Amino acid sequence: MSDVLLGLKNLKVIFPAQQGIVRAVEGIDIDILKGECVALVGESGCGKSVTSLAIMRLLNTPPALIEVESINLGGDEITKYSENKMQDVRGKQISMIFQDAMTALNPVMTVGKQIDEVFIKHNKLSKKEARIETIKALRLVGIPEPESRAKAFPHQLSGGLRQRVLIAMAFACMPKLIIADEPTTALDVTIQAQVLEVLRNMQKSHNVSLLLITHDLSVVAHTADTVYVMYSGKIVEKAKVEDLFREPHHPYTEGLLGSIPRLSDTTKHFVQIPDSVPHPMFKPTGCYFHPRCKYATDICKEKMPPLVRLDNGREIRCYHPINFSGGENNE
């Protein structure tokens, strides 16, 4: 029996526009094991959130044009599901935690009623039974006085409490997979750490798989088991989190790690990757990262490097990788 809970194979997402084609995601594969936390990292504009919405089948088609070989969830091919069946899957088998709780929550409904609806729809509970489960869910994520907090509207709660409400809602039916899209972006550092601890503890204690989407590698270091590094719609590196931090292979990964401030840093210089992610409508030829890469040569400008799998399971897309001894072409 396979340990892979989610198998995403060859996902492509494009958006036609008047000026041309926006190629948001270009043929990516992601595997998430049962009980594993996988991080999808990269700068804004790399296609991370589009990937998560495509997995949840929340992208409107049109305008989005989606092509995917497989989205296998626990042995079920959900690409073939009708929209009605997907509505049953969302919340019960896959849940999502959005980055902005204020816009994710309905402003004219109490937070308790919004969680009640999850139990009523998926577990077929009465309103009274659902409220009992809602109180338990709020208490589980560390919200004080859950009975009174359940009667509050989103604007009456702090940012940290609103994010905990989203976590409670996501875990309500104990789904197989939770997708967390930048779940702590709008929070200050102290509250961010608390929310991440709640999320990680809930994930581990209930053996739920987690896809964490973020640009913050310091979050990844304390949360993830496996990391996929995404750049301009393509996966450029995959590794176990400890291997990635100890020995990055892709120059982009090296740049992301180099931009993390450290207390031990004596240079007192902020390291940054030059320029920015290319516009998805106007990507460069060859390797998309070559205009920003200090190792780039002529072949990098002419031809996209293949994704190469190493003997230890790592994957790398680069003609001039760092600390690399060869591997098997994965494309």
Describe the structure.
The chain has a nine-stranded mixed beta sheet with strand order 7-8-9-3-10-11-13-12-14, sandwiched between helices. Strands 1, 2, 4, 5 and 6 form a five-stranded antiparallel beta sheet that branches. It has 331 residues and is α/β, with parallel strands linked by helices. It is built from twelve helices and 14 strands. The longest helix is centred in the middle third of the chain and has 17 residues, at 189-205. It is 32% helix and 23% strand. Helix 4 (111-123) crosses helix 5. It has a single domain (4-108, 153-329), classed as Rossmann fold (3-Layer(aba) Sandwich). A hairpin with a 2-residue loop joins strand 1 and strand 2 (20-33).
Descriptors for this entry?
single chain, about 325 residues, alpha/beta, Rossmann fold, 9-stranded mixed beta sheet, 5-stranded antiparallel beta sheet, globular
SSE blueprint and pairings:
Blueprint: E1 4-17, E2 20-33, E3 37-41, H1 48-55, E4 65-67, E5 70-73, E6 76-77, H2 83-89, E7 94-97, H3 101-104, H4 111-123, H5 127-140, H6 146-149, H7 159-171, E8 177-181, H8 189-205, E9 209-214, H9 217-223, E10 226-231, E11 234-240, H10 241-246, H11 251-258, H12 298-302, E12 308-309, E13 315-316, E14 328-329
Parallel strand pairs: 3-9, 3-10, 7-8, 8-9
Antiparallel strand pairs: 1-2, 1-4, 1-5, 5-6, 10-11, 11-13, 12-13, 12-14
Helix pairs in contact: 4-5, 5-7, 7-8
